[in-house]
Write a structure and sequence with these properties.
332 residues; alpha/beta; Rossmann fold; Alpha-Beta Plaits
Amino acid sequence: MHRWEEEHGAGGAEGEVARIIYASRAAVRESVYAEMEKIRASAVRHNEPEGVATALLHQSGWFVQWKEGPRDAVRRIMERVAADPRHHDLRVVHSSRGPRLLSGPWSMAIARGRDSVMDMERRVLALKRDTDAGAAFSPPATWRRLSTPLRHPGAMRQQDDESFRRVLVCAAEGTWSFALTDWLARRHGTDVVHRRFAGAQSTDVATDYVDFVHDGHVLRVIAMARHGLLLPLTRAFLPDYSHLVLLLSADADANARLMVRVLEALRPLPRPPSLLGIARQPHSHIEPAALARRVGLDYAAALADPSHPAGCWEAMQPLPGADAQPARACAQ
């Protein structure tokens, strides 16, 4: 367990914290990433001793910030944040008490898309209207609602698990998971949303997603660089995924390194996603399946070329149902 989790009880421990999410117009004239790194340094220095965790997103000229921690500490930090000249028009879109969902002091994300500043404002206003009318959204659903482009199917249904399903894909080596999202976007005539995530100390990693209608559901397929699995923002969303798809390598050591990250990321979750390994040869599944079973995780194995998107997609069927097993799964 990381020091942050030991000290502050992240990852679903008993006890409640204040949780707040706000959106604001960015007033950053220079490099957005460089400015966010400055914000990161200040937040880690001031917020971590207070037990406050933060996730910060920049998208379409807006900031979205999610904070969790002791109520008085969150209130004090919010007063300071409200006076920061790097943003304006701050609007609180979520406020609740509940378990910690952010497992570390800092995460940040930059998302690139075609939505304008006004498109983003329409998303903020629509969410604010819904919450003011009594609609309840979890912090992850609030974040997704604000970060999902208006053009994407299911943009307004982020809280509805019956109609919106999510699958995370990670490769043991290379960029195979990103090739899959690119292929799915071309197949369905939709956009890939390109994002970069970073933690308190780590360098940034890529994570893209594509949304499309599949078997009567809106399906989101997310490609995640393997180094991003342990970021607090990634871990906060893991309970919402029905499956974590692992594109395995012929290199057993690469597969073992990926599984170590997967098991550490899933360790605190009461209901982790099911694991689906895709590999060319049956023997590539032996060690990952054994590691998964050792900690009580479901693991299904499918045979396909993980570098070939069409074959991977066929092997993944009949996703996205959380209780479904891949059509081409082989017993281990």
